[in-house]
Design goal:
It is built from 11 helices and 15 strands. It is an alpha/beta fold and 370 residues long.
Length: 370
């Protein structure tokens, strides 16, 4: 059985992927940055425990290494890298900065572009001929593209064609992978993820990204100012492309199992969820009445609405989207049956997430009282 190497291994999607790989008895090598107060191994084990709701995870087949994404050879001794990459491996590059704003531009491009280039260099230097490189990109590298975003490479473009620097950096990183495929005959692949949410079957949600970041802000506001009606700058009929974490993991496992994999695959949801359903669900779950308005100028907002708007600098870029994606490669080559989110499953995810926030709040209050 091949070895799976994963960098950025303690992230949400990567740790769920590793959990499943270990369950299937794959040998996994996790590359993790050291924390301020915790070792890479501790960070990895904490991530695995968190997604498993605190239950024991068998890590017999897991090896964890400290690495530095932007340094030559990841600051790992060359002899160690030779061992890590020996034999046929599938290498997954998950590491990324999720920041998006102008003030973080250098960090975004340093991590998402420079880090990808360095990762490709390490792979090219140490991996064997039959090994494969998988770049975990984003479906939102489509930027402001209109039409159906196909499973192919698109040229680099200026920031005016993207919603933020994160999207632009991931498009540039994709094309760096393309260069290595063409110039070095590297066995490279790009996997584009849309917004990854919780488990579609159980509702268990361990991410606070996207719609859950919005729910988190509403939770805080609702308990400081309960039973208020607030307007938010959101198009109620526009949609969010939400793909469940269990579906993503199943697709990733299938990618490992299949011998011949397409160069680019869009891991996205075909059934999108309207903003109005997300808004109504949060309003039902919290003591707050949220009213979405497509046209809402800041000078029209009250104090609470301006607080919400200030926290939506990222989310606001996606309030009026109905994106279309091609999935021929995913459908015809992987032949993996995905499970689409429904209004009911999204409600369950939001319910789990909000209940967990409330439990954390209550725990924090008890600790403060001691």
């Amino acid at each position: 059985m091949k070895t799976i190497i994963i960098n950025g291994a303690n992230g949400y999607v990567a740790s769920n992927f590793i959990y499943k790989l270990l369950e299937l008895k794959y040998k996994v090598i996790a590359l993790v940055r050291p924390g301020v107060k915790s070792s890479p191994k501790e960070r990895m084990e904490e991530a695995l425990t968190e997604i498993n709701d605190g239950a024991y995870v068998n890590t017999t087949n897991l090896k964890v290494f400290a690495y530095s994404l932007l340094h030559k050879d990841f600051l790992i001794p060359s002899k160690e890298l030779e061992k890590i990459f020996s034999g046929d491996v599938d290498y997954f590059h998950f590491a990324a900065s999720l920041k998006f704003d102008l003030k973080s531009k250098d960090e975004i491009f340093g991590t998402n572009v420079g880090g990808t280039e360095n990762s490709l260099n390490v792979f090219s230097k140490y991996a064997t001929e039959n090994s494969r490189f998988f770049f975990i990109g984003t479906a939102y590298s489509c930027g402001r593209f209109t039409g159906r975003f196909e499973e192919k490479f698109y040229p680099n473009e200026g920031i005016e064609n993207f919603r933020n620097y994160y999207e632009q950096s991931k498009r540039i990183a994709e094309n760096i992978v393309k260069e290595h495929i063409e110039k070095d005959a590297m066995n490279g692949h790009v996997i584009r993820l849309s917004q990854v949410v919780g488990d579609n079957k159980t509702g268990v949600t361990k991410t606070d990204y996207g719609i859950f970041d919005f729910a988190k802000r509403m939770h805080s506001l609702a308990f400081r100012h309960p039973n208020q009606t607030v307007r938010v700058h959101v198009s109620p009929t526009s949609t969010q492309n939400l793909i469940p974490i269990d579906t993503v993991v199943n697709y990733l496992i299938r990618t490992v199992e299949v011998k011949y994999v397409p160069t680019i695959m869009n891991f996205i949801a075909k059934n999108q969820i309207k903003n109005i359903h997300i808004i109504k669900s949060i309003s039902e779950l919290l003591p707050i009445n949220i009213v979405p308005e497509r046209q809402l100028e800041r000078e029209e907002m009250n104090a609470l609405e301006r607080i919400i708007a200030a926290g939506m600098t990222f989310t606001e870029n996606y309030i009026d989207t109905n994106l279309l994606f091609d999935t021929k490669n995913l459908d015809n080559i992987l032949m993996a049956a995905g499970h689409e989110v429904s209004e009911n499953s999204v409600y369950k995810m939001l319910e789990y997430f909000i209940e967990n926030l409330a439990a954390q709040k209550e725990k924090g209050a008890m600790i403060s009282a001691l």
